[in-house]
Amino acid sequence: MRTVSLLDVDPDLGELMTAGEREEARRLMRARVVQLARGVATEAVYDSGASALHGLLLLDGLVSRTIALTDATAVELLGRGDLIEPSADALGSRLVPIDVSWAVLEPAEAVIVDDDLLYDARRWPQLVAALFERLASQATRLATRCAISQLPRAEERVRMLLWFLAERWGRIGRDGIVLPLRLTHEMLGQMLGTQRPTVSLALRQLERDGAARRRIDGAWLLPLPREEIGRLVPHPSGGIRRLAAQEAGGGSDADLVAAVGAAPTSRSAQLANEQLQMRIERLEAIHAREQKRIDADEP
After folding, report:
1. pLDDT of 126-177, one tens digit each?
2. pLDDT > 50? residue 261
3. Of the residues 26, 111, 216, 286, which has the maximum number of CB atoms within 10 A of its CB?
4. 154-297 domain in CATH 3.10.20.30?
């Protein structure tokens, strides 16, 4: 276990701060990081020395949460930036008898969120707000996956799930989007509430249609025309996103530019300028890294 600066390992948590606030938080906000080895996770891994453990903030890797209810099983995938509650009984007494289990699918690191960390965080409301935003995003993703599971056709459910996962974990390749998650047909079915044989049939149909195929390394390829690939960019926090039409002359980044020009001496303009600069720097770094990966993505 090691101690680190929280903003060094998760700089996005400081996006709402000014440069001075970020620097102060970077120096003073310390966090303990635990290594999560591949395999079934237990509480004992997390709470060594923790002052009233509340959860974990994932820094990398891939973790699954499995909910079992009688013969039905649902799986959720969690990665960088997600907050998890590793307790086997986080909800307390329930009227619906479910079993909760965690597994580390890819070796991970996580910040221990305990009383000490939350006590230190009280000095920076923007940091606490960023943690709440993470939880809200997780809830939205979970609701989106529930909506995908309600689509009538199995092929459409599987196709939409693969694209949904690509938003978070996908990489831009020469022929489309590479989803480097080694997901079995059974796990895809558990994420959709669909039986494994149905998922297998749906994937065969998607491959015949040229909509998805499994690569020899276990990753998934979602083919796209070249012009569509050109409209995709790496997301600063991982995964990919599609360029919106208004980004050429409007949209969120353009709003920041307008705010900077409107009142260059105001605090809001200063904050907007710093946020814009942070986005530019992250995108430049990610672009350089992804350029090196593109040719290596195809076997």
Report:
1. 999 999 999 999 999 999 999 999 999 999 999 999 999 999 999 998 889 9
2. no
3. 111
4. no
Reported as a single tens digit per residue, the pLDDT across 166-217 is 999 999 988 899 999 989 999 999 999 999 999 999 999 999 999 999 998 8
Q: What span, in angstroms and rounded, lies between the C-alpha atoms of 267 and 82?
A: 30
What is the side-by-side order of every strand in the sheet holding 62-69? 39-40, 99-106, 62-69, 72-78
Whole-number Å distance between alpha carbons of 145 and 139: 10
17 contacts 46 by C-beta, under 8 angstroms: no
Those residues with Cβ within 8 angstroms of residue 149's Cβ, 6 or more apart along the chain or in another chain: 157, 191, 192, 193, 194
User: Nearest 5°: phi and psi at 246?
Assistant: -75, -10
* Residue (of 67, 50, 180) closest to 110 by Cα position: 50
**The two three-digit tokens of residue 284, written as one number:** 């430049």
CB 6 within 8 A of CB 13: yes
- Fold classification of 2-148 (topology level): Jelly Rolls (2.60.120)
Q: At what angle do helices 196-208 and 185-192 cross, to 10 degrees?
A: 110
pLDDT, tens digit, 9 for 90 and up, residues 17-65: 999 999 999 999 999 999 999 987 765 555 555 567 788 999 999 999 9
Where along the chain do the CATH 2.60.120.10 domains lie? 2-148
CB 110 within 8 A of CB 34: yes
